[in-house]
Specification:
Blueprint lengths: L3 E4 L2 E4 L4 E7 L5 E7 L6 E7 L5 E3 L7 E2 L2 E2 L4 E6 L8 E8 L15 E2 L3 E6 L1
Parallel strand pairs: 2-12
Antiparallel strand pairs: 1-3, 3-9, 4-5, 4-10, 5-6, 7-9, 8-9, 10-11, 10-12
Length: 123
Amino acid sequence: QVQLVESGGGLVQAGGSLRLSCAASGRTFSMGWFRQAPGKEREFVAAISWSDGSRYYADSVKGRFAMPSDSAKNTVFLQMNSLKPEDTAVYYCAASGRSYLGPPKDPYEYAYWGQGTQVTVSS
């Protein structure tokens, strides 16, 4: 059983930065970040596979977001730079307890979810 604890959300002006963190209490094979804005579907943001440290980013955040990690502490971060108002959403950390081919990008591939943290970007 895996439990995830998120932190780091807040309010920031457009062009600013925020860093989210997510610590997992149990064994995970991959971890990812998703976000959900009001009235929209939950969308993939970024993910990491612990087996080789490979990462995958959604096109909408590529070049702006990064996913640093600390494998020893089973912790991942989401470093968000050059934030835009359209980045406003509740951000969820997720973890998979099974192996997939490459970093999973579909929410159905994640069995464990954090509580979510609000990120609001003002214009």
